[in-house]
Amino acid sequence: MTSTTAFAFAGGAAPTTTTTWTTAPTTTAPGGVDDYYRDALGKSGATLKSALHGIVRNQTRLSYDQVWEALKVTDEDPANPNNVVLLYSGRSQAKSTNGGDANDWNREHVWAKSHGDFGTATGPGTDVHHLRPEDVSVNANRGNKDFDAGGSVASEAPGNYTDGDSWEPRNAVKGDVARMLFYMAVRYEGGDGFANLELNDRVSNGTQPYHGRSSVLLRWHAQDPPDAFEKRRNQVIFDRFQRNRNPFIDHPEWASSIWS
Fold first, then answer.
1. Low-confidence residues of the chain: pLDDT under 70
2. Fewer beta carbons within 10 angstroms: which end of the chain, N or C?
3. Longest distance between any two alpha carbons in the chain, whole Å
4. What is the pLDDT of residues 169-198, one digit of tens each?
5. Distance between CA atoms of 85 and 162, rounded to whole angstroms?
6. Which neighbouring-strand residues pair with 9?
7. What is the distance between the alpha carbons of residues 250 and 254, in angstroms, rounded to a whole number?
8. Domain of life here (predicted)?
């Protein structure tokens, strides 16, 4: 697919661009990663968080409609190029079945869009680093719950658990979820007209710009390190869509430096 829409860049007006999207995930190695992070190397704690924000905020922004096509590339099933892999369900499903009907897949905001009230606005509401394909009803079951351990088995998504105020994803993506939230807490720091998104160690955060539970997320991050699918996804987003990266996939050690 070829889009001739002029994307808006954070921090300034966008040049007019023509972006060609292909349907196959990239296999390009993440060359020059240390150069990308050169302003953050050697830093720790709050200084590291600030440096990473300065790096990753320089991104190409997508519209919410463009997210549909981006997810068909970023989350393509390596075993079947006609399908995407759903985040919580783990199901491989036809790319063409995106929509709002039962058993379609739609756009799951891993950082719940009500946590900071950004909705589907271009910026945090369309940032594919935390948007993933998911079954419509499973997405609704997760709702805007924070992340924590425990609960009852989630309907239609065995391996996931939920209760009145939290969601526990399946083991294979626990770390993925944690790193998506880490990214959001670094990327959105109150600029761009959006709320300052931060992690805390609570659930039931509602519409506040917080997401938890941070201690559980750090444990999941250590338990489930980045795998090939997640690393390729990060590279695809950089190469073809947003031109920015999730630092916690490239440098997992930085999460404990900032939040421990």
1. 1-31
2. C
3. 49
4. 999 999 999 999 999 999 999 988 999 999
5. 21
6. 12, 60
7. 9
8. Bacteria
